[in-house]
Design brief:
Distance between the termini: 51 Å
Structural class: mainly alpha
Number of strands: 0
Largest sheet: none
Oligomer: single chain
Order of helices and strands: HHH
């Protein structure tokens, strides 16, 4: 019973974080939600007894891609001038 509850909560958390990633207007929050989604996917793959995919998701999905997206948002904010509206 505990396992089913955890799996249901994990599924709801995955759906919520995916929706939040797409629906938020703030880029930093979207990237952080993307990283959270990737870490939740690591748990999902581990629950499905796929440790190799979980490790790849952690390294590429949450780690490398998240870091690159954060760096990109930082460069975008640095290039934006104080008087820019767009």
């Amino acid at each position: 019973m505990m396992s089913l509850t955890f799996d249901l909560l994990l599924g709801v958390a995955l759906l919520w974080s995916a929706w939040h990633t797409l629906a938020t207007a703030d880029l930093i929050r979207a990237v952080v939600s993307f990283i959270v989604f990737g870490l939740l996917m690591v748990l999902a793959w581990a629950r499905l007894d796929a440790p190799d995919i979980a490790l790849a998701e952690a390294a590429i999905g949450a780690g490398l891609t998240g870091a690159l997206l954060l760096d990109s948002v930082g460069h975008l904010r640095a290039r934006r001038r104080p008087g820019d509206n767009g």
